[in-house]
Every structure is written in C-alpha cells, then in structure tokens.
C-alpha cells in the first residue's frame, strides 16, 4: 500500500514497550534529541490506554526532565476530541508527538480521518518526531497487527490486521516481540504478504526510521527483522482457515543497538555501514 505521505523530513521512532522512564532514558532521550532545534514542545497522546491518568504524568515528567519547554497531555478519548481545534493547534506547535501503549484499535478508531491525524502527518512531513511505544508503535504503519495469539499464530488467518495510522509504508511492526514470543505472528504476516517487512521490537528497544527509510536500532534490547520478499514457496493460499502454514526461505535478522537496516534495499547494516549512510545524508 502506497503511503499517503511518501516524502517526510521527520523521524519515526517505534518502541517495543517497557522502555526506561526513570533511569538513563536512553530511548526517550534520543526521541527528544531528534526533534527540530526550534521546536521543543512535546505532545503526549494516551488514547490507546485504559489508564491515561496514570501514564500521562509519567511521560510528562520524563520529557520535562529532558528539557521540553512545554508538555501537552492530550487525553483524546473520542472522535469529537480528535477533531478539536485546540488539540490540532497543540500538535502543530510540537516537535515530538508521542503515542503511549494500550490498544492500537482505539488509535485507528478515534484518529482515522481526523483533523488531529492530518496535523500529525503534516508535522512529520515538516520535520517533527512521531514516536510510540507498544500499541503506539504497532499502529504506525499503513497496515497494523491488532490481534493474534503468539503461541500458535503460524496458521492461516490466525493474525488479524487492519489499516494503521499510515506514517510509514511497507512494514508491519510488532511490539513486546521476544518477551511474548511473537515470532510466528510476523511469519504468518510474511507468508500472506511477502512484500511487507516484519519488524519485531523487544522491550526497552526501538527503531528510528530515518527519512531515507533507513532503520537504526537503539536501546539495550533486540530488534528482529523478518524478511519474506524472497520467499521461495508457501502453502498459505491453498489452506483452509486455521490450517498450519509452511514457508521456505524466510530470512531473519537480529539487530542490536547501533546496527541498522535499509528497508527498500532489504540490506542489513552493521554499525560502520549505518554510520556511513547516516553521515552521508547529513552532509547533503
């Protein structure tokens, strides 16, 4: 699916969940550092969460500690609030827009087609950071996973997918990936649509998606890439719903902090290669 906004100047940061919010703040510090130099306000969106009153203060404290001049806690709970002009104005002022965890279907239901979502996309195009953790990360692509048991998901139809928020095309993001054993979820997705690159993000790990569609891994956890583009064969098209899926030549990479991946070229980047590509872009 082609992106609605294929050209952006800003960065996307997808976090696997359970990121450090009290100690060194490795991931959240990097999120804040990526913001445009002239825009140090932060908008926190807790729509996905059932406990926004608990989450919003903790993220307000983190970004205040990191140097934000203002932190806007946007407790948007319905489509009327997503259309509210004041919420749109606060997004337009923010250099970081951050989605908390929770239920990603709430994000697409509340924000889909809204003025606030259009404002977020415009801010991303203009250079702002759009970041999210857990459900907030899973909802970022044009297509998202919203359900599927981890224990035995390599069966036809075991993973439920829907349209996401549309910030990045050609990838599927899954969070809490290693801790909840979600490998078979992305394998089922790859078998059904080999063009989609699977990105499984562990807890306290994240990927930065740079404007040139280069991934950079940050944080102490792992990021798993599942690449099905050169899949040799699969039986998924011939199966009845619920039957086990066979796949041949699905490629898996395990990335750690400082390593990267070229989404379009499907190429793993060791630290030196990643640094060279990012330095070249900064020099342009």
Automatic annotation (TrEMBL):
Keywords: Carboxypeptidase, Hydrolase, Protease, Serine protease. It is an enzyme of class 3 (hydrolase). GO terms for biological process: proteolysis. Its EC number is 3.4.15.6. InterPro entries: Class_I_gatase-like (IPR029062), Peptidase_S51 (IPR005320), Peptidase_S51_cyanophycinase (IPR011811). It holds the Pfam family Peptidase_S51. It catalyses: [L-4-(L-arginin-2-N-yl)aspartate](n) + H2O = [L-4-(L-arginin-2-N-yl)aspartate](n-1) + L-4-(L-arginin-2-N-yl)aspartate. The active site is at residues 134, 176, 203. The keyword Amino-acid biosynthesis does not apply. The keyword Transcription regulation does not apply. GO terms for molecular function: carboxypeptidase activity; peptidyl-dipeptidase activity; serine-type peptidase activity. Exopeptidase that catalyzes the hydrolytic cleavage of multi-L-arginyl-poly-L-aspartic acid (cyanophycin; a water-insoluble reserve polymer) into aspartate-arginine dipeptides. Belongs to the peptidase S51 family. This is Cyanophycinase.
